[in-house]
Amino acid sequence: MIALVRRPATSLADGMVTFIERSPIDLELALRQWAAYVAVLQQSGWQIVEVPPDDALPDSVFVEDTVVMFGDVAVLTNPNRPQRHPEIRDTATVVESLGIPLLRLEDPAAMDGGDVLKVGRTVYVGLTASTNQAAADQLTQWLTPRGWTVVAIPLTKALHLKSAVTALPDGTIIGYLPLVDEVERYPTFLAMPEEGGSHVVVIGENAIVMSSDAPESAALLRDRGIDVTEVDIGEFTKLEGCVTCLSVRIREAVPSL
């Protein structure tokens, strides 16, 4: 199991925000929070692989937006913001060095990885300001023969699909209702009492990581028998980030390792 991460750039405070007002960023605190997040992954058995940092790329810590894993194949995204394209090239170099086959989204398809939620063999693709129908169509063309089903979900209330919904280890989709469009599209849904409670990263068979700013949600999930680790990512939420944004989990065997 590999976790792909990228250290925050010194220009982090210049990262883009869309749905919230800009707040001052404490870079030193952000670096400590990032290191603690990475440590949790490492302690849970994930091998950490870093994309080299680049201080000219303020959003690059959100490495999830650059690549999505589908089994043993990686799909490089195609952000509609040109200033993020160097992030894709950097991620591609590292993924290729691991021996993982790459597929590359091409124009007119536009996509951020934060708009892709995998639940079993279903791939939910959020249609947002960052991700369009052409991207969902390209994914359908590639993934259907590989046994995946792609479902496009319009999203209007959050930056990315995984800003609104993620999934528990058993496949239950969770979300914060004020941010969720078309909740009836999900076969199972559990409403969370806090926005931060809707973002989880599955790190083990019954283990997740979530933000420490959602204690009621953490208690609810522990009552369901889930092993919950809470991390402080407050500096990244100021840039519309969440726990999913800060890593890409590669679960399939990597040929070069």
Automatic annotation (TrEMBL):
Entry GO MF terms: amino acid binding; dimethylargininase activity
List of catalytic residues: H160 (proton donor), C245 (nucleophile)
Superkingdom of the source species: Bacteria
Listed EC numbers: 3.5.3.18
GO annotation terms (biological process): arginine metabolic process; citrulline metabolic process; positive regulation of nitric oxide biosynthetic process
Swiss-Prot/TrEMBL keywords: Hydrolase
Group of enzyme by EC: hydrolase
Mitochondrion found in the keyword field: no
SUPFAM superfamilies for the chain: Pentein
Keyword Oxidoreductase: no
Family per record: Belongs to the DDAH family.
PANTHER family in the record: DIMETHYLARGININASE, DIMETHYLARGININE DIMETHYLAMINOHYDROLASE
Protein's name according to its UniProt entry: Dimethylargininase
Organism: Nakamurella sp. A5-74
